[in-house]
């Protein structure tokens, strides 16, 4: 790696001020699990890294409101989320995915904010955050704003963050009676990058689906809601016919990419199948 400057600001204001929006070689770094790999591979050569590890002011930690809404600081490690009783109680689908999100060494270092700001379509967290209706609080030199996670992700490794903006926290609204499931289909080990990710959240009335959120990831340029599949599921009973129709609608709608983990045709067939599996798992309370 080429030499670079490392600074460690104590406040979020100082960290933002240290970012040069006109110099793409200046980057903030939290856990660094992705950025360091890019540096070692020579893909990215920074002139300055701004470490966020010493920031004070509530950038880490998990809090639960009385209604079950969760606020997770951007510097909270994935491991802390994995073992949080508040997350397990109010958003158990997140706790379940963490066990197979990369490996324990990465989870001990990687942060919630970094996992979202990196914009990697293969990450397991973004599709689940989207089906839960999560939002991020963003802080920059022009002030603060909130953005739905589905609007944060704009393309392949691309987000709506301005060069001088940082994610400060993730907010997950109270889920009420919503039930959710996530399926990760890998070509290798269970904690490998997925060839396909499918997340589903359902609002049920007995055996009928009142409303649904469906998100596909990994096989697509970004984690993406599938409106056509959601429309099929809304107001329908959970049966083979409904799930086949929803799977077909999802496969027709999604923009599928070929890569080393499989062809677009292969992933499209996976999507057809796993839409139904995810819906059944969510409706039955299966711990996926």
Task: Tell me the layout of helices and strands.
Blueprint lengths: L4 E3 L4 H7 L7 E4 L5 H6 L7 E4 L10 E3 L5 E4 L4 H5 L2 H6 L1 H7 L5 H6 L2 H6 L7 H7 L3 E6 L2 E6 H4 E3 L2 E2 L5 E8 L6 E8 L7 E12 L2 E10 L6 E2 L1 H7 L6 H14 L10 H21 L4
Parallel strand pairs: 1-3, 2-3
Antiparallel strand pairs: 4-5, 5-10, 6-7, 6-10, 8-9, 11-12, 12-13, 13-14
Helix pairs in contact: 10-11, 11-12
Provide a brief overview of the structure:
With 288 residues, this protein is of the alpha+beta class. The protein has helices spanning 12-18, 35-40, 78-82, 85-90, 92-98, 104-109, 112-117, 125-131, 149-152, 227-233, 240-253, 264-284; strands spanning 5-7, 26-29, 48-51, 62-64, 70-73, 135-140, 143-148, 153-155, 158-159, 165-172, 179-186, 194-205, 208-217, 224-225. It has two domains: 62-172, 2-Layer Sandwich (Uridine Diphospho-n-acetylenolpyruvylglucosamine Reductase, domain 3), CATH 3.30.465.10; 179-284, Enolase-like, domain 1.
């Amino acid at each position: 790696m080429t030499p670079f400057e490392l600074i460690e600001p104590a406040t979020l204001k100082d960290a933002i001020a240290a970012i040069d929006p006109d110099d793409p070689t200046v980057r903030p770094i939290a856990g660094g699990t992705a950025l360091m790999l890019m540096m070692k591979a020579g893909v990215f050569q920074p002139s300055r890294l701004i470490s966020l590890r010493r920031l004070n002011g509530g950038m880490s930690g998990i809090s639960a409101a009385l209604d079950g809404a969760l606020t997770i600081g951007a510097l909270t490690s994935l491991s802390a989320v994995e073992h949080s009783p508040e997350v397990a109680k109010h958003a158990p689908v997140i706790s379940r995915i963490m066990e197979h999100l990369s490996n324990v060494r990465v989870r001990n270092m990687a942060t919630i904010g970094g996992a979202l700001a990196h914009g990697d379509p293969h990450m397991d967290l973004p599709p689940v955050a989207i089906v839960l209706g999560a939002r991020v609080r963003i802080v920059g030199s022009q002030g603060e704003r909130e953005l739905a996670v589905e609007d944060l992700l704009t393309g392949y490794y691309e987000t709506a963050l301005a060069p001088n903006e940082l994610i400060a926290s993730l907010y997950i609204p109270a889920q009420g009676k919503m039930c959710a499931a996530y399926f990760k289909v890998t070509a290798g080990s269970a904690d490998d990058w997925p060839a396909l990710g499918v997340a589903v959240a359902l609002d049920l009335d007995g055996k009928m689906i009142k409303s649904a959120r469906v998100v596909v990831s990994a096989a697509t340029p970004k984690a993406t809601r599938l409106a056509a599949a959601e429309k099929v599921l809304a107001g329908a009973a959970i049966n083979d016919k409904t799930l086949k129709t929803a799977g077909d609608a999802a496969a027709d709608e999604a923009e599928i990419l070929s890569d080393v983990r499989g062809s677009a045709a292969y992933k499209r067939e996976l999507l057809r199948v796993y839409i139904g599996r995810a819906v059944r798992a969510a409706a039955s309370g299966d711990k996926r």
